[in-house]
Automatic annotation (TrEMBL):
InterPro entries: DUF3800. This is DUF3800 domain-containing protein. It holds the Pfam family DUF3800.
Length: 269
């Protein structure tokens, strides 16, 4: 099983300098073990029913720093105090008649609502524990295509950034399956499980059909079965883990942040 997710935007210029598409592959008989390992970490931080969306988890929440003794409060108290602060702030912004600022703040609050009971350090610890867990999966392999958009010239290519990235990940996963299948015949076939994005879903499904017919630029596709299975990442911890891997790689490329990268890169193919 190869779980695929992206980090950054494929638009040019977009709001990131890099685009990363990552695929985290695990043997099918290890799926339950991996899922349970991630769930155990989530439960530790009271996040068992919550999506790991690292870009929203790992940012500072200003209101927490404005609540006295926030770190000494329990989870319920923290959540209540932050919600109270945010309601007050939204009411204040409504009166300023700045709809753009109000709308963006409301979006930020909604995206981070599930994590407000954790301090900034606890949120960082949570993400690091997930990354450390992945680093110990010796049976897993990480594939990724990383594009520096400064050097990507659309006029000289017949593929978009996300199309090129998908072809690369498919090719590498296919080649890995061919190699591993010689030694372990029971692992000779694989399936791609992709974060569901309505725009990307049709495009990548059509691309995969082309790959089955003509192959990619680098490999004939024989070991990957079916077109990608697109799933809601909110319901699938393993796709969320692929999101963490792609984020860690992109932040390393853009900002030389190596804490998470050094962990997930241990599983790089």
């Amino acid at each position: 099983l190869c779980y695929v997710d992206e980090s950054g935007t494929s638009d040019i210029p977009g709001n990131t300098s890099h685009f990363v598409l990552a695929g985290l592959s695990i043997p099918i008989n290890r799926w339950k073990y991996c899922d349970n390992a991630i769930l155990a970490i989530k439960k530790k931080y009271n996040l068992e029913d919550t999506e790991i969306h690292i870009a929203w988890i790992i940012r500072p929440y200003l209101e927490q720093s404005k609540i006295s003794n926030f770190e000494n409060l329990d989870y319920t108290q923290r959540k209540s105090r932050v919600q109270q602060f945010r309601k007050t702030e939204l009411l204040r912004l409504q009166k300023t008649k700045n709809p753009k600022h109000y709308s963006q703040t409301k979006k930020n609050y909604k995206k981070t609502e599930a994590y407000i009971h954790l301090t900034y350090q606890q949120r960082r610890d949570f993400i690091k524990e997930i990354a450390n867990c992945v680093s110990r999966w010796r049976f897993a392999r990480l594939f990724a295509e990383c594009v520096d958009k400064i050097y990507f010239d659309p006029s000289r290519r017949d593929q978009t950034i996300d199309e090129q990235s998908f072809e690369q990940v498919v090719s590498r996963f296919e080649r890995y399956l061919q190699i591993i299948g010689r030694r372990y015949p029971e692992r000779r076939c694989g399936l791609i499980i992709h974060d569901n994005n309505p725009t990307v879903a049709k495009k990548h499904t059509d691309l995969m059909k082309q790959f089955y017919e003509k192959g990619t630029m680098w490999a004939d596709v024989e070991a990957i079965i079916e077109t990608p299975l697109f799933v809601d990442s909110q319901l699938t911890s393993m796709v969320q883990t692929a999101d963490l891997c792609s984020y860690a790689i992109r932040r390393y490329l853009e900002n030389s942040e190596d804490e998470l990268f050094d962990l997930v890169f241990q599983r790089a193919d």
